Amino acid sequence: MLNLILFRHGKSDWDAPFANDHERPLSSRGKDAARLMGRMLSRTQQVPDLAVSSSALRARDTLHLAARAGHWKTPMRIDSALYESSAGDVLNWMRSINESPERLLLTGHEPTWSDLAGRLVGGKSLLRVPTGAMLRIDFDADAWSEVEFASGELRWLLPPRMVGRLCGGK
Question: From CA 62, how far away is CA 78, in angstroms rounded?
Fold first, then answer.
């Protein structure tokens, strides 16, 4: 059984100075949400075996803040292939990873995450992944190379606001 956790980057700060979209930073709210989600994964014993982020600043910071807040001991990588990619691109990337983590976390962007999630569970883009949210899809597979569209089962989709209410914001 393989678990994929898709983590949409936290809310970005459109008022901060940045040279281009790739370098747009997180807002304070986005940073708080990232920390909250990282703690949630630790408290529910769902820390990933491998975490990979898009190369965009807001995605990298989201992952690092979550990992630090949750005290993860997870290997982390940055991969530019997850920035401005399509759902098909991400599926191909997943199928070609050399590592064999049982639980893989990817940090990235819209509209790709909603499209990818919907297609992995057999629908069209019917899922909406809010800013800072995580979702988990399980696959009855032994290797990531076996994962295909419409082969996953959505286990949960949690936006930070819901996690904050359930956990008292801590």
Answer: 12
